[in-house]
UniProtKB/TrEMBL annotation:
Location of this chain's protein in the cell: Cell membrane
Protein name: Uncharacterized membrane-anchored protein YitT, contains DUF161 and DUF2179 domains
Membrane protein topology class: Multi-pass membrane protein
Keywords: Cell membrane, Membrane, Transmembrane, Transmembrane helix
Domain called DUF2179: residue spans: 244-297
Highest taxon of source: Bacteria
A Gene Ontology term for the protein's cellular component: plasma membrane
Pfam families: DUF2179, YitT_membrane
InterPro entries given in the database record: DUF2179, N-reg_PII/ATP_PRibTrfase_C, UPF0750_membrane, YitT
PANTHER family: UPF0750 MEMBRANE PROTEIN YITT (PTHR33545:SF5), UPF0750 MEMBRANE PROTEIN YITT-RELATED (PTHR33545)
Length: 305
């Protein structure tokens, strides 16, 4: 155990990470993963979403809702691609204006490929059990969106808005978008039956939970590291995450010898990489990782490129 003795001034380091410098290898890798995510999402729509007659929320849910309205009430079959691109026009503008051009270009690619494949792929039926379709459809949807986000893009629609809010407010806003999607599902309930709307809420909830599990950029983690190499540990944290740290001087309660504690708050998405690097820097370091509920003050968050 350590008791706080006194606190040094926060170690000031320039951020060594350059979010605008991306290697060609990384760009190619991201392009491949985004293409894979687009195929998964299109297949998910054709196999799970449409067979369950659910509306997953966001731009996808709104597109499917408009398609259903045109078909049910006007007997007109409207292209998924056309509707989805029109709906994404404003979110794409928000992406270009406030999030990042390269990020938005990759997202537009994701939107176009997903839309075209959704129109071209044949419908595939694997089960009549709506609950199974909803549960597995929600899981697959969350996985596809997570792959997309981790590869430097988004599936479009409300994802742009949620990222914009998260960048501005520094919070995880995907639950806010879940509330927004409830409006779409309410309209679907009035028009096509409340059972479809309730199944859609389950779908969206499962998808959001999977997204929280796999994509943790807007969740923070606090590190307390007891080490005999505080400067090296601070450098390691800054190199990997871009975050500075505070070095605390303490005293071991058993041996009554001086100990150094490095305190830092980083993104949960980076925590496993940082901890591994810290243990490499100082194999004898004692690392305490804690979930952070809220951070007030200057907290560096790398921008989307």
């Amino acid at each position: 155990m350590l008791t706080k003795k006194n606190q040094n001034t926060s170690t000031c380091l320039k951020n060594p990470k350059n979010g605008n410098t991306i290697s060609l290898k990384l760009r190619i890798r991201n392009f491949i993963f985004i293409s894979f995510a687009a195929v998964i999402m299109a297949l998910n729509i054709k196999i799970f979403v449409r067979n369950a007659n659910t509306f997953p929320g966001g731009a996808t849910g709104l597109t499917l809702l408009i398609q259903q309205i045109f078909w049910r009430f006007f007997n007109i079959k409207v292209s998924y691609t056309i509707i989805n691109l029109l709906i994404n026009a404003i979110p794409v503008y928000i992406g270009f204006r406030y999030i990042g051009k390269h990020f938005t270009i990759l997202s537009v690619y994701m939107i176009i490929v997903t839309s075209v494949l959704t129109d071209l792929l044949p419908a595939i039926k694997i089960t009549d059990d709506i609950l199974l379709l909803v549960v597995f459809g929600g899981i697959i949807n969350g996985v596809a969106i997570s792959i997309c986000l981790l590869s430097g893009a988004t599936s479009g629609g409300t994802d742009f808005i949620s990222i914009f809010i998260s960048e501005r407010k520094g919070i995880d806003s995907f639950n806010i978008i879940l509330g927004f999607n409830t409006v779409i599902l309410t309209i679907a309930g009035f028009l096509f039956g409340w059972d479809k709307a309730m199944y859609s809420i389950v779908f969206q909830f499962i998808s959001t939970q999977v997204l929280h599990l796999l994509y943790r950029k807007y969740q923070e983690t606090t590190l307390f590291i007891v080490t005999n190499k505080p400067r090296e540990v601070v450098e390691t944290i800054a190199t990997i995450s871009g975050h500075s740290s505070t070095i605390l001087e303490g005293e071991g309660s058993y041996e009554h010898c001086e100990r150094n504690v490095v305190y830092s708050v980083i993104s949960s998405q980076e925590s496993s990489h940082v901890v591994k690097a810290v243990k490499t820097t100082d194999p004898k370091a004692f690392v305490n990782v804690m979930r952070t509920q809220q951070v007030q003050g200057r907290f560096y968050r790398p921008k989307e490129y």
